[in-house]
Amino acid sequence: MTRAALLFVAALFAQQPGFSLAPAGPLLAQQAPASAAAASPLDYEVFKTRVQPILTSVRKGNARCIACHSRGGGNSYLEPLAPGSTTYTEEQSRRNFGRVQRLVTPGNPLNSILLMNPLAQEAGGSHWHGGGKHWQSQNDPEWQVLATWVRGQASAR
Q: Does residue 67 contact residue 80 with C-beta atoms inside 8 Å?
């Protein structure tokens, strides 16, 4: 393939929604910039007060999200809690926000990994998620909080 053809193909990919040159995988576990909240169409305060507690809550029959998603590796998007702590510091919450927002498509919950992977397939979820299916329906109150946040609706507050 000629250089011009490669540049043309690269330009086509760059125009696709959701395309990013940002690295993926284990780098999600690295620090997100503090300015991530300012640049995001998602509401940081709603994330901190409504969404983040869902990600740390006890799961009946399943592990808490934080149990698997704070251990490092490609699927690690949450900060580990300090030993004995049950909440995050402001700095940790901002880093979590910077990482978690990469798992959603603002305005479109049904195209957001954060909502679709832990949702039962019978409810429209994906087949992925080794940690179990946390929500059996899109009407589940937790799923609705996340969906409302992703849509950017004020009722998530």
A: no
* H or E element, residue 13: helix 3-14
The predicted structure's pLDDT at residue 26: 36
In this predicted structure, the answer to whether residue 100 has a pLDDT above a threshold of 80 is yes
Of 10-24, 80-94, 97-111, 122-136, the poorest mean pLDDT is in 10-24
Burial of 59 (0-12, 13-18, 19+ CB in 10 A): middle
Please name the residues in contact with 20: beta carbons below 8 A apart, sequence gap of 6 or more: none
Structure tokens, 81: 């809690």
What is the residue-wise DSSP string for 26-86?
GGGGSPPPTTHHHH-SS-HHHIIIIIHHHHHS-BTTB--HHHHHTSSSTT--SPPPPTT--
pLDDT in tens, 30-39: 444 455 555 6
Q: What is the pLDDT of residue 69?
A: 86
* Nearby residues of 98 by Cβ (< 8 Å), 6 or more positions away: 31, 32, 33, 36, 37
Structure tokens at 106: 């603002």
Is residue 11 classed as helix, strand or coil in its secondary structure?
helix
Task: Name 119's bridge partners.
Answer: 135
**106: closest CA among 150, 64, 138?**
150
